[in-house]
From TrEMBL:
Transmembrane segments: 21-42
Domain of life: Bacteria
PANTHER family: THIOL:DISULFIDE INTERCHANGE PROTEIN DSBD
Entry keywords, A to Z: Membrane, Redox-active center, Transmembrane, Transmembrane helix
Protein's organism: Bizionia saleffrena
Protein name: Thioredoxin fold domain-containing protein
Pfam families: Thioredoxin_7
An annotated GO BP: cell redox homeostasis
Any one Gene Ontology molecular-function term assigned to this protein's record: protein-disulfide reductase activity
SUPFAM superfamilies (alphabetical): Thioredoxin-like (SSF52833)
InterPro entries reported for this sequence: Thioredoxin-like_sf (IPR036249), Thioredoxin_CS (IPR017937)
Length: 181
């Protein structure tokens, strides 16, 4: 059995301490990185409105009736883009919409054929200068006015219109509307 000379003893003690320190540091680093990853994943799911398509809405309404919020937009609509960036990413808005509504987001210029209820909707104006799909024309057209965006529609559990807004709504304005409906 070999023994370590006395002069090497302090070095070996320090080496053992450094190994313990290294293990501890490694464990703490792994723990913190797991917490950060989990927190990031959770916050991403909480900071986004759960947007549905009309087909998904149809299924959801059959399973569990709930109020409906519809955001009609177009890629060229500056106020629509501003609402997407500033309003629909606000934590309070996300929480209230996800909690109280089925939310639908629809590009009014889509050429998709949409099956909703027992009907089929399509864009009859797809080749025109102003190619607005049938659904936004039916749900968000203002009487005796040209179609305009943004168009926000609130429906009750029975799919009856409660309110329609044809303008940019700030976070405060939208929260007020949601709380009143």
């Amino acid at each position: 059995m070999s023994t370590v000379p006395e002069r090497h003893a302090p070095f070996l003690r320090e080496l053992k301490l450094n190994r313990c320190s290294l293990k501890y540091t490694l464990l703490v680093t792994i723990y913190i990185s797991l917490l950060v990853t989990a927190n990031t994943a959770f916050s991403q799911t909480e900071e986004a409105v759960n947007w549905l398509s009309f087909e998904q809405l149809n299924t959801a309404l059959q399973e569990a009736p709930k109020k409906v919020f519809i955001d009609f937009y177009a890629d060229w609509c500056t106020p629509c883009l501003k609402m997407q960036k500033e309003v629909f990413t606000n934590k309070a808005i996300v929480k209230e919409i996800n909690k109280n509504y089925y939310a639908v987001k629809m590009n009014v210029e889509t050429t998709d054929t949409i099956h909703f209820g027992n009907q089929v909707f399509f864009n009859t104006r797809a080749k025109r200068r102003n190619p607005i799909h049938q659904i936004p024309l039916l749900m968000a057209q203002q009487k005796d006015r040209q179609f305009s965006l943004p168009a926000l529609v609130f429906l009750d559990e029975k799919f009856k219109a409660q309110a329609r807004y044809f303008q940019f709504l700030s976070t405060t304005q939208l929260l007020t509307i949601i709380s009143e409906l």
